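tokens incoming
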């Protein structure tokens, strides 16, 4: 399909429709997007799962962080970071595979013959995934997500909201 500048109205229509659908689903089902469908949430959960598998639960991670450096601590931290890097690079590779034929991209990656732009975008999206899901986590939602900014305007007293009950 070829899109010309005069077809920009279709993109505008698509984006407005998506925004209205997001508002409608928020009014009907609360924070369905943030809780289950947002890629940031999904990747954060994946990265946190890897962290739990490599370093243990929250209490074990806090003990590990306070412990002096040892071979075990180094191995656990390195395993976590290597898994995060692998997931990030896989994400970058998959995303670039939408624009470059994935089979050609895989062969180029295995033979270390990837074009400069493909390598840049794989590394860029890999680093973005690694940083956003591994370190920023919920900070992305609080400070960078536009949906979080207008979420409070979309809810009323009858909206389904998961929150702490101060009265209890």
């Amino acid at each position: 399909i070829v899109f010309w500048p005069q077809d920009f109205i279709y993109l505008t229509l698509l984006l407005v429709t998506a925004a209205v659908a997001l508002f409608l689903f928020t009014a009907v089902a609360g924070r369905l997007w943030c809780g289950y469908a947002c890629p940031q949430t999904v990747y954060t959960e994946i990265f946190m799962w890897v962290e739990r598998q490599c370093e243990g639960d929250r209490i074990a991670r806090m003990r590990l962080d306070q412990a002096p450096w040892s071979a075990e601590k180094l191995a656990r931290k390195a395993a976590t970071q290597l898994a995060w890097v692998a997931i990030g690079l896989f994400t970058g590779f998959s995303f670039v595979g939408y624009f470059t034929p994935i089979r050609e991209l895989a062969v180029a990656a295995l033979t270390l013959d990837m074009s400069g732009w493909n390598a840049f975008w794989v590394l860029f999206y890999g680093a973005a995934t690694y940083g956003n899901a591994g370190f920023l986590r919920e900070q992305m939602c609080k400070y960078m997500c536009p949906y979080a900014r207008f979420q409070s305007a979309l809810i009323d007293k009858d909206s389904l909201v998961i929150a702490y009950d101060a009265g209890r």
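note: The mean pLDDT is 90.
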